[in-house]
Amino acid sequence: MLNLIITNNLPEVKRLLNQFKVKRAYAFGSVCSDKFNQESDIDFLIAFQEGMDPLERGENWWTLLYALRDLFKRDVDLIAEDTLRNPYFIKSVNASKELIHGG
Question: Which domain holds residue 64?
Fold first, then answer.
């Protein structure tokens, strides 16, 4: 159950994800539940397109992070899928994540 803050802004979110070469993205955490409130941040799990130069990937990550913060006017956590290591955190993410881009 995606919060309206995501669904109402989904076209712009998808435009940004395409612009910064994200092949797949999920929202997760409180924004996918009834626990989301005025103080909540928004959590995204992303996978970039393969073959990106590490410098370009880093620049795209930072620029996307700030663009999403500007769009939503709140804190955003942006996590790259390939950086996940903690099995407990992975389980927690998988329990609430909802696909918003790619597949």
Answer: 4-101
Q: Which of 27, 32, 62 is nearest to 43 (CA)?
A: 27
Tokens of 80: 């790259």
Residue 103 has pLDDT above 90, yes or no: no
Query: In this structure, what token pair is assigned to residue 94?
Result: 């998988």
Token pair 């899928």 is found at 81
- What's the distance, CA 37 to chain centroid? 18
Assign 25 a pLDDT band (cuts: 50, 70, 90).
very high
CATH number (domain holding residue 77): 3.30.460.10
Alpha-carbon distance 58 to 46, whole Å? 13
pLDDT band at 11 (very low <50, low <70, confident <90, very high): very high
For 54-66, what is the mean pLDDT?
98
Task: Count the domains in the chain.
Answer: 1
Between helix 54-72 and helix 10-19 the angle, nearest 10°, is 160
